[in-house]
Specification:
The structure holds two protein chains of two kinds. By secondary structure, chain A is of the alpha/beta class. Chain A has a domain at 1-85 and 196-233: P-loop containing nucleotide triphosphate hydrolases (Rossmann fold), CATH 3.40.50.300. Helices cover 34% and strands 26% of the residues of chain A. Chain A is built from eight helices and ten strands. In chain A, strands 6-7-8-3-9-10 form a six-stranded mixed beta sheet, with helices on both faces. A four-stranded antiparallel beta sheet of chain A has the order 2-1-4-5, with helices on one face. The longest helix of chain A has 16 residues, at 175-190. Chain B is of the alpha/beta class. Chain B folds into three domains: 25-121 and 224-292, D-Maltodextrin-Binding Protein, domain 2 (3-Layer(aba) Sandwich); 126-222, 3-Layer(aba) Sandwich (D-Maltodextrin-Binding Protein, domain 2), CATH 3.40.190; 308-518, Orthogonal Bundle (MetI-like fold), CATH 1.10.3720. In chain B, β2 (55-56) and β3 form a beta hairpin. In chain B, α13 runs antiparallel to α18 (425-455). The chains are: A alpha/beta, B alpha/beta.
Chain lengths: 233, 519
Amino acid sequence: MASEALVQLFHVYKQYAGEGPALADATLEVGRGEFVFLTGPSGAGKSTLLKLIFCAEPATSGQLLVFGRNVAKILPRHVPPLRRAIGVVFQDFKLLPHRTVAENVAVPLEVRGLAPRDVARKVAVVLRSVGLELKAGKFPLSLSGGEQQRVAVARALVGDPALLLADEPTGNLDPDRTVEVMDLIEAANARGTTVVVATHDRSLLERYQRRVIALESGRVISDGDAFRRRAGS
Amino acid sequence: MTARQALRALLAGIAVWAAPPAGAAPAPGGTLRAVEQRRELRWGADVFGGAPYVFQDPMDPNHLVGFEVELADALARRLGARARPVAGAWDKLLDLLARGDFDVALNGIEVAEEKRRVCLLSRPYYAAGERLSVRRGDPSAPRTLEAVRGRRVGTLPGSLAQRILERAGAVVVTYDGGQDQIYDDLRLGRTDAVLLDDPIAHYYADVQPELETVPGSFGEVRYAVAVRLGDEPLRDAIDEALAELARTGQLRALYRRWGIWNAGTAALLGEPYAARPALSEAWEAWRAAVGRPPSLRERLLVRYPRTFGLFARAAGLTLLLTLSSMALAMAVGALLAAARRYGAAPVRWLAVGAIELIRGTPLLVQLIMIYFGLPELGVKLDPFVAGWLGLGLNYAAAEAENYRAGLESVPVGQGEVATTLGLSRLQALRHVIAPQAIRISVPPMTNDVIALLKDSSLVSLVTLTELTKTYSNLAASMRDHLGLGLVVAAWYLLLGLPLARLGRLAERRLGRHLRRAAA
């Protein structure tokens, strides 16, 4: 497909002090509108790769472009604006416990300085889309795991990010909740958001039939459109 | 939010307090010119247990009375001014004078050579014998100077009496507090005798049937008015006024009225002396007021209600000082905590150093350094500003550690998620970390406000008459420590309990997300 690349890695290495390489010679590309699974066993480098993309950590060497910009050359004060174009979902939800559901979802909008009325309107729309409009005033700790992850997805999507990164988003959920959350992510992709989901859950790969990048010991061992080809797309 | 508005108003109030450059700068024409221009003579004295010198009228504590009050009034009139008393601790009067807190110090200041290095002294206005008081009927009581060797004898620190006692080999017990406490200890058997100036013995020992004063004098001390070094014109004017008061017999009349006319003073003023007058109205009034403890009914219905105005004013000052100091402590404490947790290495060391230095030294030392030490560097702060700064900075160290504990209680992941949501570090701190840290910090903060409320009593050092100082002044002049102690305790609770309640409300509100039942 001849689409514009949102994420490009060229021979990227990531080395933590006193450990083997977390990422070694990774070269890959994610195009606009794609839905990509990152897979591999624990410690393969999936989370590291996501962290590099949302600028939580710098690469040790190699070049990483996000939205066409070399992240190594972005000034620290330009990092927060870049992150606002990326939605992130974590395995452990990482909701802010002192804020209500609606207040959690509102954070990315408030950071952008949106007027309170516009914030409230968008938050209501997004909460309805994840089926949590009745829980808006609750605090996260009073919700079930599946509900908390849906709040996290709502929060990641509320700012209409170009890119959605999800790190084991269903790792703490039972199968039914897993499907609920993945369906929300797939729906976002259908609306045009580029999605990268890190998972070691093979059943997801089977179920959703998308491009799969497999990592092992920090190396890309396959960048397969295998599932997609098999599905005939 | 109203709390935020209140805080802003408070900070604005502090700014107003802090704004005017404090204190009376020495006028170009010297202090005499300044006194004449403002038509006011500011004289420093300690009202703490100071009968018959300067004390609150036990029958109506809103009035300051004493023979030195009348002397100051008479002197001021001669200078064409009105006398305005300024309260200060007795052993700090000369420091406060040098600082410029008042024009003269007039409070039983003894003529002594070593004082001439720090101030000018007027001609003496009174001569007092040193009198020894003992328990009546105590067979082993020391009644001569020879007999005090090895015995416990009470007196005031820095007085001639102390030097006499030390020379005689007595075990000297000195008191910073009121003179009534010195005689109370004697009565209770904690000391064997008290050696003090004649007027004090007359007003405190002679009104207690359990005590007697040994006939004869053990030395003589003279009182003079202290004036700042370099203020010779003022000193000369006061000398002239004193001479005039002596010549016209006004001094004699004054001393007779107070029952303290004696041979030494008569000789000093060049007048004949027969005997202490049989009837002196001021002394009789004092004896009537303190000789017999008033009934509970009289205390509750007459005496305590009269203290209301004084206590209310002091409570206002205490509260203002507490709240404004706490605001300062919170602001500086937050900066220190942030510097310590997020700063680069040198900033971090600086913050740690400041915290340890402030935390590791007594508040009293800090207050003395700010109020009496900084003027040596040319920085002279108004008493309120000095007290505010001392208390605020002292508590800032406690708050900094308190906030650090709060910050460290927030899981690291919370900071990470904040930054992935596109918040800058500062935004993350403000919107995500701080709100969660505050929940941990509020209970100790409530505790600190209450502690600060009580520690504010230390600012009496910088001449601010807050609640505790008001209590000790009143208790000394009304000779009622227990009853007034309960009254002042009630005032402290009146201030402290709402603060504690506010703290509990804040705790509950900040912790509501943890209550699953609310879901």
